[in-house]
Design brief:
With 1355 residues, the protein is an alpha+beta fold. A hairpin with a 2-residue loop joins strand 16 and strand 17. Strands 19, 20, 21, 22, 25, 26, 27, 28, 29, 30 and 31 form an eleven-stranded antiparallel sheet that branches.
């Protein structure tokens, strides 16, 4: 940069072009200006972000005046953010006013009365002004007549358009002189006939008739030309270079994507081209306004190398069928070409690869979550919606949740397909932009074929538009501007949208690839690039690696086939990762060896390998068959074990004809596509058979739905019938009066609609695949010129508007959708009329309190909103506190008296203000009284049993030590354990939260839980150590014997059908140091065949069913031994079998069996219960534990941080999201009750309770919003480093103002909840915080902390 300043703000010489600048340099100069203006206000440093204008292009006098110390600058740069130069402007920086002066020197009067263009016309180098079109002529007139700067203002938006037009003027006049008298028509865009060639599937015969003569005309184009001349309708036409470039590149890409395989089938091999890579690497290529060497290379390549092959192909005739890869080849044949494991030389390398598979899932999941928070707002912004996700959620939370879910899953699919070569771009100079565009274009392409995403974002758009329209109708000008911007952005053509996407990434608001190379925070030095080759895993690779874990003691063909069945059922691979050994048989369709299921580490390696194989396999199938639906799981993530088993049986029947692969493809394909597989794919018979069977099943489901709906309708009340008819769009204001309460007419109306929908559904059986049925029958259609609509089922990379129009959505139940849409429209119009009437009533009522201010609607509603919040908060205080009641009464009376004294109109406002003030004063007295006399704060769960798991352990035994000393303890709980089935973490909820247990303390036996995490309804299972007697654990015994007993509840009788006994070891690494962990343990003699009894009745009492003995030695010192027992059983009551309406496969349940889980922990020496976690967020410590503030007697800290800062899970466990202001009580979570006064507070706002695998709970409170992976009141398994939410100050009220911060608290199980600990020094929360120095924790209000999930180095 030139550091010296320009001599003065007003220069002697205005900026101008050099009088003898060449045509080529003039076009380059204007190209630089166009590119600089396009980048616009995002520029921070023009010299590093923008191209240079060389001094020789500018007037020599101007350059001399701007050469401090007689040193000519290496280049001049336009600053689009600067309108006019000032005294601080560097000498080599041009402002927008300088750009205007350049334009005037080219086409205006100039300082000497002439200009560059006039001189060129006089010399014959340019044609005359009569060659210009109306837009070009208008710009010339404006420039020539701009005497005071009003016609050519230094405005960025004006100059962007003017610069492009000026370049076209220069090109037109120059081409006019070179045309030797032949008339040339100059336009900026290609004719529509060319653009139509790129819509839908490429028709090579038709398109080549247009492309071939275009290539011949364009070949002579000279470098640096701004336009290309070609013949169109027997007339020469000059078109902007960017138009020709974009068309030819897209035509070439489509040609290779759709025809390369077809050429091979007729014996023609297309030459490989690296031109695609070149166009990606030259990031500004598509924006360059002049012809470059790469353009010439592409034209020459098409003309010299492709043209002869295309002519030969068209003469031979196209092969039958579509000619795609899946027609002649299945994935089994394709996978033989490349193997992931072919270079593995020894078992160590195989084991390293298995570990990589285990690490990959967490890394991809965390990166997908992180990038969603960045890229989803960017997607909305690209469509003209600039609000953040929190604001959008307030408009339509439900639709936004669905959009986020599909976006995140599709983003993870894209990340998993990135190759090592693509990741390598991140280390190349300038490669970051190319990498970002690769990711975004792949993502937008896949989203464009995701029917659930399309449907949910369309619904969100409709609700968002309605919201803005209502605001605009109330006179909100900002809302009207948002509407206009939205309409403009969402209707951009795909080409323009892609250009906008590329430009937005040149200077992105956040460089989101910086963290990407870390591969997931908290993973140490592992990067996503290290996992980039894992997606190549084939069936042979899987078998090779699985053999390392299970040897040959498994039926691999069955396993591989049933893994394909899991894909066909659209289960999430993550459900496999959390499988319990008891559920593995049903899921995999075979029995796994005991040495695998009883070795926790080995079993988890196997599950991780299966999960990552499923991710890779389903993407491989989707790419091979060009059906994106295969790569997606069900939207809800729900599972149906009965459906899975039926699918396994179908795959078994077709195992000679593709088996699982045929099942996947048959379900993903419509009837027309199935016909295409008959041309040579050896699985064609199987695919066709699966498709036919599935179609019959779908038809039966339509019939069942019709009959079930009709039967339910007849049992409804009249009011419910009316609601049902309205929801189906059948009952409208037009027929409502005629129908009335006549139930016969209602039934006839329902039958009409059901029959119409049934007929629609039957017609759609051929047009829609089974998966499209699951996705509510949505297919996005791609409309081609003169063609029938073509379903778009495989997304090609490229930016495109995803909110454009109706997105060409085709729905199976078209008539039903039309009915419902029309009914909503009528209801909306009726609501609008009603709202107008209510508005008048509202204004009249508000005027009593607000007077004349009530006539302003915006002000009125704002004040009413505040008053409503104050009223609700005050009522809560009055309801719960004695002194608050007294204060409200006295305050209201005194306020009314004072208001009356001031004038009659102030009586009501005075009483209201007095009530508010009195209630708050009384509330303060209530809190003081409670803190002084009421003891430790308690916590009430707003709906026990629905929101948080419950626990039975007495808090009196909990002192918060970080470890326990030798002995046996059973970790008790009724329903304190989260969904074991999904987390696989029995230890997640059975801990005593760091309790000190000595030999003299014998805790009660373990409560038995079922698959749901609640106490078992049918049995009590008890597992205790019976030998050695009075076990203390101070010394390591030679063996430990467990006794297992079962007792039924109520009148139930059970029959045990299976069980699993697992032992988990947790060595204390702090005490043991680098000593190797002890060997795995099991009970070889405790088997199902050796059970003492299998049938237990209600009168049998506690029945001992067996014993289990483990052998120990001194290598097990300072180790925790957790023994978990899971039992599957049938239940009957009074001779009648009890069925399981919602079986949990992870626990081994079926429709006629249940499971129960119990366990016991033995501690040998000093064994750890908990370890340090990371800081939950990054920021400044604002309050420590204990003290005299709000953390009095509480094990909690506060971390102040910016709004929206990530909040992370600090341990593995199960997370519950709550909002104290949620409408549904079960979603409200923790409500504070302080002392004996009974005052309830909802101050936690949005919060998360994390039940850790160590058994204690952590509270994360006052969040701005929850992570999109969580749902209110629902248990979600998480790992350390998962984003739980974002820092905020929710729960803050006028009586309790809080800044942006995270409240982080340690909690323990108590009678009916997870209760805060009475703690004066905060030892418990300190015990789980990172301890970098090893010294005691001391609170420092200025201390900055950084979460290890935000930092690149460990804490």
């Amino acid at each position: 940069m030139v550091d010296s300043l320009a001599p003065a703000a007003e220069q002697l010489k205005k900026c101008a072009v050099h009088h003898s600048i060449s045509q080529k340099d003039l076009e380059r100069l204007l190209g630089v200006i166009i590119e600089s203006l396009q980048v616009g206000e995002s520029v921070r440093d023009p010299e590093t972000q923008l191209p240079a204008i060389y001094p020789e292009w500018l007037d020599i006098e101007y350059v001399r005046e701007h050469s401090p110390n007689n040193t000519t600058p290496a280049g001049f740069y336009v600053n689009p953010r600067l309108q006019r130069r000032n005294e601080e402007t560097p000498a080599n920086i041009l402002a927008l006013k300088d750009v205007c002066d350049i334009f005037k020197s080219i086409a205006g009067l100039g300082e000497d009365g002439d200009n560059f263009i006039d001189e060129k016309i006089r010399s014959g180098e340019y044609g005359g002004y009569d060659l210009l079109d109306e837009e070009q002529a208008n710009l010339i007139n404006r420039i020539k007549n701009d005497y005071n700067g009003e016609l050519l203002p230094p405005d960025l938006n004006y100059l962007r358009g003017d610069s492009r037009v000026l370049l076209s003027i220069i090109a037109t006049l120059h081409a006019g002189s070179a045309a030797e008298g032949e008339e040339v028509e100059t336009v900026l865009t290609l004719p529509d006939e060319f653009k139509a060639l790129l819509e839908g599937d490429l028709n090579l015969g038709v398109s080549w008739e247009w492309v071939k003569p275009l290539i011949e005309d364009v070949l002579p184009t000279k470098l640096n030309a701004p336009t290309v001349v070609f013949r169109y309708n027997d007339q020469k036409r000059a078109v902007a270079v960017t138009e020709i470039r974009f068309f030819l590149n897209n035509w070439l890409r489509k040609f290779y994507e759709e025809y390369q395989q077809r050429f091979r089938e007729v014996g023609l091999e297309l030459p490989e081209t690296k031109l695609f890579d070149a166009t990606n690497k030259l990031v500004a290529y598509f924006d360059l306004p002049y012809w470059v060497e790469l353009d010439q290379d592409i034209i020459t390549f098409i003309s010299k190398e492709l043209s002869p092959l295309i002519e030969q192909y068209l003469k031979r005739g196209q092969p039958t069928g579509v000619g795609l890869g899946y027609q002649k080849e299945n994935t089994e044949d394709e996978e033989k070409k490349e193997k992931l494991t072919e270079n593995i030389k020894n078992v160590e390398e195989a084991d390293d690869l298995l570990e990589r598979f285990s690490q990959a899932g967490k890394s991809y999941s965390q990166e997908s979550e992180r990038l969603t928070t960045i890229l989803l707002p960017q997607l909305f912004n690209m469509h003209g919606i600039s609000r953040d996700l929190t604001q959008l959620g307030q408009i339509d939370d439900n639709s936004l949740f669905l959009v986020e879910r599909e976006f995140r899953q599709e983003l993870e699919n894209v990340l998993r397909t990135l190759t090592p070569q693509e990741f390598a771009l991140l280390s190349e100079r300038g490669g970051s932009l190319e990498f970002r565009l690769i990711v975004l274009r792949k993502l937008y392409g896949k989203l464009s074929t995701n029917p659930r995403f399309i449907a949910s974002i369309q619904e969100f758009k409709e609700n968002y538009v309605s919201y803005l329209e209502e605001r605009a109708a109330d006179g909100d000008q900002a809302a009207q501007r948002e509407l206009n911007k939205l309409e403009r952005q969402i209707n951009l053509p795909d080409q323009r949208f892609d250009e906008e996407l590329a430009k937005s990434e040149k200077v992105p608001p956040e460089e989101w690839t910086k963290e990407l190379s870390k591969g997931g925070k908290g993973v140490g030095e592992v990067t996503l690039q290290e996992f980039a080759d894992l997606h190549k895993i084939s069936q042979e690779d899987f078998r090779f690696l699985a053999t390392r874990l299970v040897g040959n003691d498994i039926d691999f063909p069955t396993l591989l086939r049933n893994l394909d069945v899991i894909i066909a059922e659209r289960w999430s691979p993550e459900q496999i990762r959390g499988l319990d050994p008891g559920g593995s048989t049903a899921i995999f369709g075979l029995v796994l060896p005991d040495y695998l299921t009883q070795d926790g580490h080995r079993f988890q390696l196997f599950l991780n390998l299966c999960a990552e194989y499923l991710y890779a396999r389903r993407q491989h199938l989707a790419d091979h068959y060009q059906l994106d639906a295969i790569s997606r799981q069900t939207g809800s993530g729900s599972t149906d074990l009965a459906s899975l088993q039926a699918a396994q049986e179908m795959a078994e029947r077709y195992k000679e004809y593709g088996g699982g692969e045929a099942l996947v493809v048959g379900r993903a394909s419509d009837s027309k596509r199935v016909e295409e597989y008959q041309h040579g794919n050896k699985f064609g018979v199987g695919i066709s058979g699966v498709h036919s069977e599935t179609k019959e099943q779908r038809k039966g489901q339509l019939e069942t739905h019709k009959n079930t709906t009709r039967a339910r309708f007849h049992e409804m009340s009249i009011d419910d019938k009316r609601k049902q008819l309205q929801s189906l769009g059948l009952l409208t204001p037009d027929n409502e009066q005629f129908i009335g309460d006549d139930e016969l007419r209602m039934a006839q109306l329902l039958d009409t609609g059901l029959n119409e929908d049934y007929d629609d559904g039957v017609r759609g059986l051929d047009d829609f695949s089974y998966y499209e049925d699951q996705d509510n029958g949505y297919v996005q259609e791609q409309l081609g010129t003169g063609q029938r609509s073509i379903p778009q089922r495989y997304g090609r990379p490229g930016g495109r508007s995803l909110l454009k129009g109706a997105l060409n959505l085709k729905n199976r139940f078209q008539k039903a959708q039309k009915r419902i849409k029309q009914a909503k429209k009528i209801a909306k119009a009726a609501k609008k009329l009603a709202d107008k009437g209510l508005e008048k009533v509202e204004a009249a009522a508000a005027s009593v309190v607000m007077g004349p201010l009530a006539q302003n609607k915006t002000l009125r509603r704002g004040i009413l909103g505040v008053l409503t919040a104050l009223v609700l908060d005050t009522l809560n205080m009055i309801q719960q506190g004695f002194f608050a009641k007294v204060g409200a009464f006295l305050g209201g009376a005194l306020g009314g008296i004072a208001g009356g004294a001031a004038g009659g109109v102030f009586v009501i406002p005075g009483a209201i203000v007095g009530t508010f003030g009195g209630a708050r004063l009384g509330h303060g007295i209530d809190q003081w009284f409670a803190n002084t006399f009421g003891g430790a704060p308690e916590v009430r769960v707003s709906s026990p049993g629905l929101s948080l798991p419950l626990a039975k352990q007495s808090a009196d035994t909990l002192t918060g030590s970080a470890k326990v000393s030798g002995g046996e303890f059973a970790k008790t709980s009724t329903n304190a354990w989260p969904a074991i089935a999904t987390s696989g973490g029995f230890m997640a909820t059975v801990g005593l939260a760091g309790a000190v247990i000595t030999a003299s303390i014998q805790p009660p036996p373990l409560g038995t839980i079922g698959a749901s995490g609640l106490e078992s309804e049918y049995v009590i299972v008890e597992k205790v150590i019976t030998d050695p007697a009075n076990f203390t654990g101070d010394v390591v015994p030679s063996s430990i014997t467990y006794t297992i007993s079962v007792e039924t509840k109520g009148n139930y009788q059970i029959e045990i059908v299976n069980f699993q006994d697992q032992i988990q070891l947790t060595p204390n690494t702090e005490v043991r140091g680098s000593e190797a962990p002890p060997a795995a343990l099991s009970c070889p003699d405790f088997t199902f065949a050796n059970l003492a009894t299998r049938v237990i009745g209600p009168n049998d009492g506690k029945v001992q069913i067996g014993t289990c003995t483990i052998t120990l030695d001194q290598s097990y010192h300072d180790t925790g031994i957790f023994n978990k027992f899971t039992m599957q059983f049938k239940v009957s009551e009074n001779g009648q079998a009890v069925t399981n309406s919602s079986p949990d496969f992870n626990c081994g349940e079926t429709s006629d069996t249940f499971c129960a889980i119990s366990g016991v922990q033995a501690c040998l020496g000093d064994c750890p219960l908990q370890q340090e976690g990371c800081w939950p967020t990054s920021g400044r410590l604002t309050q420590g534990p204990g003290g005299e503030g709000s953390h009095r007697n509480t094990a909690a800290i506060d971390i102040g941080a910016r709004l929206g800062t990530n909040v992370y899970a600090t341990f593995d466990g199960t997370a519950y999201a709550f909002d104290t202001y949620a409408a549904e009580p079960s979603n409200q979570g923790l409500i504070d009750r302080t002392g004996k006064s009974g005052v309830y507070s909802k101050s936690y706002g949005k919060h998360v309770v994390l039940i850790t695998n160590q058994g204690f709970a952590l509270l994360f409170a006052h969040l701005n919003s929850h992570s999109s992976t969580l749902r209110l009141g629902t248990p979600v398994p998480v790992t350390a480093g998962t984003i739980l939410g974002y820092v905020g100050n929710s729960g803050s009220t006028t009586g309790l103002q809080m800044g942006m911060h995270l409240h982080y608290e340690y909690r323990v199980p108590t009678g009916n909840s997870w209760q805060t600990i009475r703690s004066t020094n905060g030892a418990q929360i300190i015990g789980v915080l990172p301890n970098e120095t090893g010294e005691a924790f001391v609170f420092n209000g200025t201390r900055q902390v950084t979460s290890c999930y935000d930092a690149s180095t460990p804490q």
